[in-house]
Amino acid sequence: MSTEAAVAADPTTTNWAEARSRVYEAGRSAAPPPVELPVAEVDGQTLAEPLTNLTDLPAFPTSSVDGWAVRGTGPWRLVGRVLAGSTPPPLPEEGTAVEIATGAMLPDGATGVLRVEESTRTADGLVAGTLRSAPEWRAAGEEAQAGEELLPAGTPVDPGVIGLAASCGYDTLRVRRAPRAALIIFGDELLTVGRPGAGRVRDSLGPAVPAWLRRYGCEITSADVVGPVADTLEAHVEALRQGLATADLVCTTGGTMHGPVDHLHPALRELGAGYVVNTVAVRPGFPMLLARVTGPDGRVRFVAGLPGNPQSAIVAIVSLVAPLLAGLRGRVMPELPRVTLAEPVPGRGDHTHLALVRVDPATNTATPVRHVGSAMLRGLAGAAGFAVIAPGTQGEPGDQVPVVPLPLLPGERPQRGV
Ligand SMILES: Nc1nc2c(c(=O)[nH]1)N[C@H]1C(S)=C(S)[C@@H](COP(=O)(O)OP(=O)(O)OC[C@H]3O[C@@H](n4cnc5c(N)ncnc54)[C@H](O)[C@@H]3O)O[C@H]1N2
Ligand code: MOO
């Protein structure tokens, strides 16, 4: 890796809101180029360009019922049948009709469609009945006109978007692909199996962080998770170098402080990394950082240093990693919904306090949860997100405050009333 900028010796702590927007901009300016993928393979990616309608939709006038396409007034003489999937000949003259299926193209000259169940046949085989006043066919371009922009660039692709793109006739879409992530666990004291005890704690971040990263749209497999890495500078540098070789984002856990075996900062210096943010005025999670490394190919990669205390690591994910990924994926900065506090939440002086809360969806009220020490995960496992208590303030019942939601899926964490 080439040296981009010297790692500052004296970290300058960044305000939490400023840190979010700075990492988002860093991600946006380093967003990898779009790729073109088959339309069935883009779920979860992001549109790199607007979804523009390729033809009128529907592309031709289409019967919306099974029945008879008729010309003029009845009764009508049958001259054929039109099934979906073909181009019919025109209806030749007044008083003629063709049998037509739902979805079939309306023949030129048709002035109406009569539902089969609202028709009768006369003794001499003519079709009779009364047309409804509302048309029983869909006009070409009724849903969208050719060239119309249906969705803007930056739209997250979900199954609804995939279906719409396919119906427009797209075979492939240009998307911003999911960033590739890697995770490096620092800390010799960590156990990766079995029960904690005798001075050793279980590594809770190795299993949990990749799952959170996937929720934010990263690609990360078990092979991308490395550690615990030995507490030496050489081992740290080597692990980071390997991660950066393939990943757009390498997350590390632990070692963000300056203790005797905290090697993250010296390792970043050795790799020629430049800080985007180095410590954030937020509690918990203060020592979090984001650094940028430019590879020999000119491509920018990021290192997110998540503090070792497990809840603090998740605070760093929601504070730095989530906005960075939104930028890298060409999406808008995630907006923070607002909730009403049901109980007081203390401030943390000149730091932003991210306070774990559960949220009652019926009333949109947030209640702080218990067991929220930075080394604990019990509170987090029952919370919907973090209420944001601004520096120099404290939360009072009734206050409206922003909340940083955890990326939970529908049905997860059913929120009990407060
Ligand atoms: N002198 C000071 N010491 C500390 C300060 C400070 O301001 N001055 N800040 C504290 C804060 S805040 C945090 S957060 C931690 C951050 O420390 P590190 O990022 O250097 O993390 P470690 O020291 O490696 O570990 C801290 C703690 O977390 C446990 N840990 C680490 N990794 C994992 C994991 N994967 N799974 C579960 N638990 C993990 C580790 O055993 C330690 O108990 O520094 C404070 N110190
Ligand atoms: O902020 Mo530390 O992250 O208090 O545990």
Automatic annotation (TrEMBL):
Which segments constitute the MoaB/Mog domain?
182-327
Q: Which UniProt keywords apply?
A: Magnesium, Metal-binding, Molybdenum, Molybdenum cofactor biosynthesis, Transferase
Q: Which InterPro entries match?
A: MoaB/Mog-like_dom_sf, MoaB/Mog_dom, MoeA-like, MoeA_C_domain_IV, MoeA_C_domain_IV_sf, MoeA_linker/N, MoeA_linker/N_sf
- Annotated coiled-coil segments of the chain: none
Protein's pathway? Cofactor biosynthesis; molybdopterin biosynthesis
User: Which Enzyme Commission numbers does its entry carry?
Assistant: 2.10.1.1
Q: Where are the transmembrane segments?
A: none
* EC category name: transferase
Q: Which Gene3D superfamilies match?
A: MoaB/Mog-like domain, MoeA, C-terminal, domain IV, Molybdopterin biosynthesis moea protein, domain 2, Molybdopterin biosynthesis moea protein, domain 3
The reactions it catalyses are: adenylyl-molybdopterin + molybdate = Mo-molybdopterin + AMP + H(+)
State its cofactor.
Mg(2+)
Question: Which SMART domains does its entry note?
Answer: MoCF_biosynth (SM00852)
Per the record, the similarity remark reads: Belongs to the MoeA family.
What PANTHER family does the record point to?
GEPHYRIN, MOLYBDOPTERIN BIOSYNTHESIS PROTEIN
The entry's function note states:
Catalyzes the insertion of molybdate into adenylated molybdopterin with the concomitant release of AMP.
Q: What is this protein called?
A: Molybdopterin molybdenumtransferase
Task: Please tell me the species this chain comes from.
Answer: Plantactinospora endophytica
